[in-house]
Every structure is written in structure tokens, then in C-alpha cells.
């Protein structure tokens, strides 16, 4: 604001016009008023510039609702009823990573030596371990039966074994043939050992959905693996190529497939025994275990293809994704890692490839990010090691009705 005698007059005293008659007095008083006004104004501006945070803090403190809201948010704990592992590092998961996986299991007809090794190897992890005699189809142990007999989970990269067998059956690939993928050329052994998604997506596109679906159902997808196993579910296989990524995603990640641990165990058993897909049977007590009789579901024409698939499965353990399963004796297997419905999944399907006695071990882990295929492979490897220390694989198979019948099935011309 400027003070002067033109226009409206600034009145020091009410009703007085000091631009007339008293110029010096007026000027002095005007100067004093302007000086005081500027001094007060500059003080206010300086406070704002030098202490902005202090002023905002004071204003917030003066707001009646601000302080109580901050205290409530800071002091409100997670409800005690919520599982502590629902939210873990890396994101929210709907299944805990750690749990007692033996709760509710019925074990009267199991091989307790196998079960003990499986439970000790699984430890505190939330998952399932299924062990099968590949020569008979007998389920020797089934840890966490709620999971093993449930509706199934996405198979992740374990589906690549079935896709490889389909590709070899249709002569879409040869073991020595190499796909040129980007700047790399790889064969089937390398692709299985390192679980290369690009290789199997390319192979799936080459086969097409109809052929992939045909072989998947032939290998047991979409049907119960067991015979009269109470509570077992059949899993599912899509009727068309998935919307998310088509047949390529189906063949590399198992998109839209639900696989049960029993289904993977049945397929691994068929590869381990040379091509016989048994009905998996689960004895309810030791009498049924003693009188167990194997039953063939169907013979798979994969006997000549197994030598082409097995090097990649053994390579996975020796130098690939399943290296944590490496033990003194050779093991063949395939890992799988993916997420489904905010649950991380870690798969490993395997069998020992030497010794007098063969064993198929399937591990499925659920939970947060620790639930991955390599960890599942490590658990299976620990189980093989524990049994090896007890000379389980070196001992000859006991003579039972089951072994006599299975040997006749094996050796029939």
C-alpha cells in the first residue's frame, strides 16, 4: 500500500486530512507507519520460510482428530486369529509356508520305514510327499493326505515330461535335434535339465493342442490315478488351449491344468518301470498290504522313448534345476515352480535309477516364496539319503504275491 495525497487520503487521526497544513508531521507519521507495517510483514514471511515443517506440525497437532488417528494406526496389531505366515516376505500368500503336514493322516497300511523318512525329510514345511512302488503301484506312504487327495494344483514345469514324451511319440523332435532359440541351440536333454520354457512352448505350438491333450489324457491327466482310494479327486485338464498364452503356456507352465501328487507319481512310475501305468492302490491296513495285488490300468507305448527322456531327468539332478536332490546313487526327476491363486508351488517328481529296489517320490510344497521346485528336490534327495543309509535300495525285494504278479507283468512277451 502506498501513502500519498492523490486519490483517497490515509487518515492518521479520524476525520483529519494530513496532506494539508502539516507536511512534515504527516510525512514522519506516514514513514513510521510504513516502517512498522513492513517490519511486521517481513517477520511473518521469514517465519514461514525458515520453519515450514514446524508450522505444519503445529497445525496438525492442533487438529482435533489427527493425533488419535495416528496412534490407532501405529498401535493396531494384526488380529491374533490370522495365521502369521499368510503375509510373508515377497507378497501375500493364501497358504502358510510352514505347518504340521501329518495332521489327520491314516497310516495303518503304510510302510512305516518309508513314512518316517518322508516325514523327517519334509520337516516343518507345508506340503505333501507321496512314495510309490513303481513295480506294483502300491502307495507306500502319503504324507498330508488332504493335499495329496485334493482337487490338484497347477503342475508348473513337471508337465514338460509329458510334453517331451508326446513330442517324441509324434516325431516332432528327435533326441539329438536342437531347436534354435534366440542365440542358443539346445537339445531335449538340456531343455529338460534346465527346464527351458521357450523350448517346450515351441514344441507345444508345433504339436498343437489336440495332440497334447490326447497324450496328456493317455498319461493319466484328468482322471483318478488310484483305485478305490477314498477321497481322491481326478484333477482336471482344459478342453481348449488356455486364454493366457495358449498351448505354449500349457506346455511350459501347465496353465489351466490341475495335477494331483498321485497323478504325477503314477506317470513317474510308468517311466521308472518301462511303460506300465498301474492303478495306484493304498492299503488300509497291514493285512491289505500283505495281500496286495497290482492292477494295470494300461500299457503306454513309451518303452522306446524313455531312454531319450531319462538323460534330461537325470541331468536335472546332476547339473540342472534339481541339483539339491543329488545323492550317491543316480536319481531322475523334474522340478516345477509357479504360483496359483496366491499360493507358491514347488514340485518334484522323481525315481531312483539304480539298485535292487525302485522308489518313486513326489514332493509338493505350498506356501510363500520358499516353496519352490529346487527345495522340493532337496527334500526328496534327503529322503533318498535317509533310506540309503538303511540299505533300503540295496536290499532285495521281499517275495510277496505283489512282486510275483508284477514280475510276470513286467516280463510277459
Overview of the molecule:
The protein has helices spanning 23-50, 52-62, 66-75, 112-122, 145-148, 159-169, 188-193, 197-207, 209-218, 246-253, 261-273, 286-290, 306-319, 373-389, 401-411, and strands at residues 87-88, 91-92, 127-132, 139-143, 179-181, 184-186, 276-278, 296-299, 331-340, 343-352, 360-367. The protein has 413 residues and is of the alpha+beta class. The chain has two domains: 23-62; 97-411, DD-peptidase/beta-lactamase superfamily (Beta-lactamase, 3-Layer(aba) Sandwich). Strands 4-3-11-10-9 form a five-stranded antiparallel sheet, sandwiched between helices. The relative contact order is 0.14.
Envelope shape: globular
- Computed Rg: 37 Å
CATH architectural category of the largest domain: 3-Layer(aba) Sandwich
Task: Please give the number of β-strands.
Answer: 11
Give the H and E element order: HHHEEHEEHHEEHHHHHEHEHEEEHH
Low-confidence stretches: 1-88
Short description:
The chain is an alpha+beta fold. It folds into two domains: 40 residues; 315 residues, Beta-lactamase. Helix content is 41%, strand content 14%.
Please describe the topology of this protein.
Elements: H1 23-50, H2 52-62, H3 66-75, E1 87-88, E2 91-92, H4 112-122, E3 127-132, E4 139-143, H5 145-148, H6 159-169, E5 179-181, E6 184-186, H7 188-193, H8 197-207, H9 209-218, H10 246-253, H11 261-273, E7 276-278, H12 286-290, E8 296-299, H13 306-319, E9 331-340, E10 343-352, E11 360-367, H14 373-389, H15 401-411
Antiparallel strand pairs: 1-2, 3-4, 3-11, 5-6, 7-8, 9-10, 10-11
